[in-house]
Amino acid sequence: MVDYVGIADIQHLIEEIGAGEFMERLAGQIESDYKRWGEFEKSPRLASHSDVGVIELMPISDGGLYSFKYVNGHPKNTGEGLLTVTAFGVLAAVDTGYPLLLSELTITTALRTSAMSALAAKWMARPDSKVMALIGNGAQSEFQAIAFQRILGITELRLFDVDPKATAKIVQNLRAMPEMRNVTLVRATSCEEAVRGADIVTTVTADKRNAVILTPDMIQPGMHLNAVGGDCPGKTELHVDILHRPDVRIVVEYEPQSRIEGEIQQLAAAHPVIEFAEVVRGAAQGRAAAGEVTLFDSVGFALEDYSALRFLHDLIAERPEFCRQIDLVPEIDDPKDLYGGTLGSGKRRAKLRRAA
Ligand SMILES: NC(=O)c1ccc[n+]([C@@H]2O[C@H](COP(=O)([O-])OP(=O)(O)OC[C@H]3O[C@@H](n4cnc5c(N)ncnc54)[C@H](O)[C@@H]3O)[C@@H](O)[C@H]2O)c1
User: Fold this and answer.
1) How many helices and strands, by DSSP H and E, does the chain display?
2) What is the pLDDT of residues 61-87, one digit of tens each?
3) Is 77 helix (H, G, I), strand (E, B) or coil?
4) What is the pLDDT of residues 333-342, one digit of tens each?
5) Which residues are designated catalytic?
6) In this structure, which residue's CA is closest to atom 37 in ligand 1?
7) Closest ligand 1 atom number to CA of residue 78
8) Is the pTM of this model over 0.90?
9) Distance CA 145, CA 150 (A)
10) Residue 14 dihedral angles phi and psi, to the nearest 5°
């Protein structure tokens, strides 16, 4: 039998633990996995593009555990009543190749992306950062707000979306959260207004084009930019001149993938960038001066999903009530008799238990 974490299980788990605590603990797991960067077999994700979106596979292994995520990105989906991003994934044992855990990763991707964003900001933003602009108030946005409140101690959020209903939705959701009681929520009437005076700017918009959410005139010395929404070839959020500023420090997850998908796809291949692993391992600084502009050019890397799946697997080992069992792999007496043990006349299915 294989452990299975579905939507109902994650809902149950987050109700019990709280999204903030989950993301803080997951950020710790991600950080410790980035510290052992050299142990991972890494590759840029495999992307299948269409005119309206992308479907991607994200594999990674550290020699002991292997994981992959299936994820899509379809910005037009919300107009049809569907999510822009959905995902699921598997954690497997390298020594047998057997899957250990099959999990939903739609909610978990939002949790892990926000945990990663806040973790990067912990290393890169000015320590006195209190005000964050949050541009793009769709599915990922509440998770970003919670992570930055919990991990960075943000006390003011400036919210903007081209869709006022999305901003009304996030305001309503955040107002219902006890942990947001001391966070001032400001509904901005434009991106410029939201960004003016902010210490941190998170862009998490969805648009399948080279959008220009942030322009050079909006960027102030000392700002930290957390650019989350640009994550595909031809899908970016920042004006290229921001990337060319002499005082900008650009940190990416995995350079070969980010050159294809990140904001830095707009730069020449030789333009210097820093990998986040160098920052957590002390080989590079996340921020060298208070007046520097720091940019975390996030696209989402397989290591973060590996960390999330491992974190979930460890959690359910302690708390089995947060998962179910599924008969994904046959359990038969003679492993060379797959036919006889499962479909043959004897149908020796005694050990092929059905999911409860
Ligand atoms: N980097 C990562 O690890 C990572 C992980 C998950 C999602 N993403 C990306 O994050 C983005 C957001 O995902 P989501 O699930 O929240 O999507 P969503 O469709 O639910 O929300 C996106 C929001 O952006 C708004 N928007 C679009 N253009 C805008 C503009 N010019 N100015 C302001 N707002 C604008 C839309 O109105 C919408 O409310 C997607 O592009 C997705 O691919 C990245």
Assistant:
1) 11, 17
2) 999 999 999 999 999 999 999 999 999
3) helix
4) 999 999 999 9
5) 231
6) 163
7) 19
8) yes
9) 9
10) -70, -35
